[in-house]
Amino acid sequence: MRMFGFRLRVVIIGIASLPLFVTAGRLPVYAQSFDASPSIAGPLGLNTVPSARMDEDGMLRASVSTLDPYVHSTLGVQLAPPLYIALRQSAETSDINDNARRLYPGVDLKLRLIEEGRARPAIALGLQSAVGHKRMAGEYLALSKRYKAFDFTGGIGWGRYGSAAHLDNPLKSLHSHFGQDRPLDGENPSGPALWFTGEKIGLFGGVEYFTPFEGLSFKLDIGADRYEAEKAAFAYNVPAPWAVGLNYSPARWMDISVGAQGTDKIMGRLSLQGLAGHWRDKAAGYGDGFERAKLNPARTGTAQPSRAALSADKEFIILSDVQTDGLDMHASMKLRPVLSTPYQLGRAAIHMANHAGPSAESLKITPTLMGLYGPSVLLMRRDFERALTRKQGSAEEIWHNAEFDASSRKLFHKQNRFFEFWNEIFDSQWTLDQQISLSEEDHGVLSRTALLAEAKGPSLFGLLDTGYGLRWNAAHNLKGINAVRGRAEHPVRSDIDLFAARGLAVENLYSAFTHSFTPELHMSLIGGYLEEMYGGLGGEVLYRPFRKRFALGAESWITLKRNPLVPLNMGFTGEGALSGHVNAWYDLPSVDLTLKGSVGRYLAEDVGASLALQKRFRNGALLEGLVTFTDKSDIDPFGGVTQSWNGLRLTLPLGGYAYAPENAQIRLRAEPFGRDSGQRLDNPLSLYELTEPFSYSHMVRYWDDILMQD
Q1: pTM to 2 decimals?
Q2: Is domain 6-278 classified as CATH 2.40.160.40?
Q3: H or E element: which one contains 650?
């Protein structure tokens, strides 16, 4: 089957990542740069060897590089200060204009063990093809120390990084497992059983010199890769182990490198990068066309009757169940997810203070969203008066006096006013969904682009919420995805080419009942067309303690496979399945990450577990790396099998940009296409995401917004 060449990789990766890199390109050019740059295979390092250096937190980088006999395409992300994850596709080709003979995908990891100190070096542990093809698999322990304009690196390697066989494997003294003979090639994938194994290890090292010229550095290294697999597979002329190169960064969003290994191998690399945290905020406010309510410090207003419901003047803030006894005022506030909860609390508090009468001192607000509610927030009216009219207070002072009540139980009625429904129409979620795959062994880079428009409809009978969405498949190159693999008799997602061929389709159309038993315990029941490929019925329950770092939940689904051969994909094939998972989340405060683990039954009725790391940025961007292992194998075209499924996901809000709807976003997914094992239903109403605006971490992250006036 014809493989995609180097030029197509550059175009697809560049286009898929362009929005982030264009934004990052507005940053200033380096004044004096001592930043590390990528190695030929993707992670930060010298020419051919990795270093212990790490990127800035939230850095996303797409790289394309060539060094005979491979062209590497890499999409990596610094998910946390000590953790780097990348998806890499290595194509076997001696000419960048030729089609690849073979493809060797893999997932690469690097973990920083020790930060650099005044006397100690930085130390990092890395795994290339931790999960992926065995041909590229190798592990390393790297040390890096900077002295003035020089950055020195040294380390030891296993597998591909240790084929020079300089020393005995020191881990053999711990257990005989590590001393087993390690195959450096083969169709079975790499995995934990091969990590750090082998009779021998290799030594590597080098130095990078940062010149006085802006963004220009010189690299020199000696590697321990002796290309044993290539010598055994074909007549490969192994170069000398040393390499030299020049690296140039004309701006923070671009990095270029050229060099040579030995005297006969030329190398080159192009990298585009940007920081997710530098993306513009998800929304600049309620819009320049709306006049915001001003606090009335004179307290001349009259208290509203208890049966009244307030709608903030010229602001889309809806308060209901308003009650006042002259000293306190209570209300429920309907949240808009595009804006932070503290922002909306501040606007609601101002409006309530102007209608609470002269004697009221406390303002109690219960945030609600789609039938769910969170802890009530008690705010002191005087704190707002001091901060907004006397300029003597702050958000920190309001926080100090605020009280969060997660113990109360509240019963409120869903509103069904026409103007609320009309506002929800304009709050539709617009998503530019770009999926790419560097993880295929029978194809080059695969891609799919779609535009999704989703919205919440009116409440039915005051009990059920409705949702609907459309998908427009703009472009894809999946037409021949099953030519080599063969089409499955009972596909789960391997028929994605048929769904992508449909120009316009219904994404979802459902009714849902949601309920909060307490501010910390929630449930949902959903039925209808749930996602692009499946309909059915299911539900979820979530326990999310307000001041705790963990959350627990469970979900179960009876699914029906949708038929991609009927108009709008509205029919069903008659195939069904029962799936379900137990889920757990835990916030890791030291690295600002959320760890999610799931155990259960997937759509192919396989059983396994999933692990994900999520990072949220204050501007609304979301980064996620995930991996799944199940007891069912997908057979690849080269005779091997894999029981894992992995990917990287990045969501970037567009609401802060001119002419973009407030609730618009770009979603970039780098994950395999057409896999049947390890697949879950795409829940249209995830309780964890719905309750995120109620969470303690959300309140802390955005609390400064409570006094935002613009």
Answers
A1: 0.88
A2: yes
A3: strand 641-653
